[in-house]
Amino acid sequence: MEGSEEIVKKLRELLQQSEKRIREIPQEQLYVAVAVLIATFLFFLLIRLFKRTKSNTIILAGLSGSGKTLLFYQLRDGSSHQGTVTSMDPNEGTFVLHSESAKVGKIKPVHVIDVPGHSRLRTKLDEYLPQAAGLVFVVDALDFLPNCRGAAEYLYDILTKGSVVEKKIPVLILCNKTDKVTAHTKEFIRKQLEKELDKLRTSRTALSEADITNEFTLGVAGEPFSFPQCHNKVTVAESSGLTGEISHLEQFIREYVRP
Ligand SMILES: Nc1nc2c(ncn2[C@@H]2O[C@H](COP(=O)(O)OP(=O)(O)OP(=O)(O)O)[C@@H](O)[C@H]2O)c(=O)[nH]1
Ligand SMILES: [Mg+2]
């Protein structure tokens, strides 16, 4: 009993001493100390929040038959398997890129989503876009001309979506199937798409002001459309899912999902 009373007494003395010391500190110094503490706390909180919101999702979109599923297999397994059939559901997976699997050390896995090109299944894209670090728009460079209008329409919808414009989601237009000599070049495809998007912009705005479903307008009014006018970065590259020539696709992924 006596021991505990002694301790309580000592504690009280200690408390009184520290109270006295705090009172001796000039008020400004105290305020500065508290402000520094709060600032440090907020700084670490922000870092945590920023880290958590950094996405590792890459979306593969594009018309049916452009080669998205084959590219997905190449990224994941480094092989084209036994070929593909038209997808009815999105393909989704989180993995370390096949080309990086031999690397030592910790490598950040990528979450890849392959959204089927069939028009009725495309609506799924809206669900995935808010979490995208980048979007790859796959174009069939072999059978490009008959599909140019359709590809441009799909791309127009993507480039005018609020989620893409506001979050400035980078877009890679990937001209696929370049293993065949008759495939069109990426410069040709870029120019054709720009022309087609320009036409679409005129026809869609002319439709009816009240009817416009697109959230944002494309490019700069009064100027012929070109990709650098977009708020988000749009680049063009070539690939072949069949032969596994996907280095530009991998470069794009690693630019926006850091290993
Ligand atoms: N020559 C050539 N053919 C390819 C290439 N990539 C895909 N193909 C062929 O194109 C066809 C369509 O490929 P998919 O990967 O299934 O196309 P997709 O974009 O997933 O199509 P959906 O699932 O319908 O949206 C298949 O017959 C592939 O073998 C390529 O790089 N070169
Ligand atoms: Mg598919």
Automatic annotation (TrEMBL):
<feature type="binding site">
    <location>
        <position position="69"/>
    </location>
    <ligand>
        <name>Mg(2+)</name>
    </ligand>
</feature>
<keyword id="KW-0460">Magnesium</keyword>
<keyword id="KW-0449">Lipoprotein</keyword>
<keyword id="KW-0675">Receptor</keyword>
<dbReference type="GO" id="GO:0043001">
    <property type="term" value="P:Golgi to plasma membrane protein transport"/>
</dbReference>
<feature type="binding site">
    <location>
        <begin position="176"/>
        <end position="179"/>
    </location>
    <ligand>
        <name>GTP</name>
    </ligand>
</feature>
<feature type="transmembrane region" description="Helical">
    <location>
        <begin position="30"/>
        <end position="50"/>
    </location>
</feature>
<keyword id="KW-0256">Endoplasmic reticulum</keyword>
<feature type="binding site">
    <location>
        <position position="117"/>
    </location>
    <ligand>
        <name>GTP</name>
    </ligand>
</feature>
<keyword id="KW-0931">ER-Golgi transport</keyword>
<dbReference type="GO" id="GO:0034067">
    <property type="term" value="P:protein localization to Golgi apparatus"/>
</dbReference>
<keyword id="KW-0547">Nucleotide-binding</keyword>
<dbReference type="GO" id="GO:0046872">
    <property type="term" value="F:metal ion binding"/>
</dbReference>
<protein>
    <recommendedName>
        <fullName>Signal recognition particle receptor subunit beta</fullName>
    </recommendedName>
</protein>
<dbReference type="InterPro" id="IPR024156">
    <property type="entry name" value="Small_GTPase_ARF"/>
</dbReference>
<feature type="coiled-coil region">
    <location>
        <begin position="1"/>
        <end position="28"/>
    </location>
</feature>
<keyword id="KW-0519">Myristate</keyword>
<comment type="similarity">
    <text>Belongs to the small GTPase superfamily. Arf family.</text>
</comment>
<keyword id="KW-0175">Coiled coil</keyword>
<keyword id="KW-1133">Transmembrane helix</keyword>
<dbReference type="GO" id="GO:0006886">
    <property type="term" value="P:intracellular protein transport"/>
</dbReference>
<dbReference type="InterPro" id="IPR006689">
    <property type="entry name" value="Small_GTPase_ARF/SAR"/>
</dbReference>
<dbReference type="Pfam" id="PF09439">
    <property type="entry name" value="SRPRB"/>
</dbReference>
<feature type="binding site">
    <location>
        <begin position="62"/>
        <end position="69"/>
    </location>
    <ligand>
        <name>GTP</name>
    </ligand>
</feature>
<dbReference type="GO" id="GO:0005525">
    <property type="term" value="F:GTP binding"/>
</dbReference>
<dbReference type="GO" id="GO:0005794">
    <property type="term" value="C:Golgi apparatus"/>
</dbReference>
<dbReference type="InterPro" id="IPR019009">
    <property type="entry name" value="SRP_receptor_beta_su"/>
</dbReference>
<keyword id="KW-0342">GTP-binding</keyword>
<dbReference type="GO" id="GO:0005789">
    <property type="term" value="C:endoplasmic reticulum membrane"/>
</dbReference>
<dbReference type="GO" id="GO:0003924">
    <property type="term" value="F:GTPase activity"/>
</dbReference>
<keyword id="KW-0812">Transmembrane</keyword>
<keyword id="KW-0813">Transport</keyword>
<keyword id="KW-0472">Membrane</keyword>
<keyword id="KW-0479">Metal-binding</keyword>
<comment type="similarity">
    <text>Belongs to the SRP receptor beta subunit family.</text>
</comment>
<dbReference type="InterPro" id="IPR027417">
    <property type="entry name" value="P-loop_NTPase"/>
</dbReference>
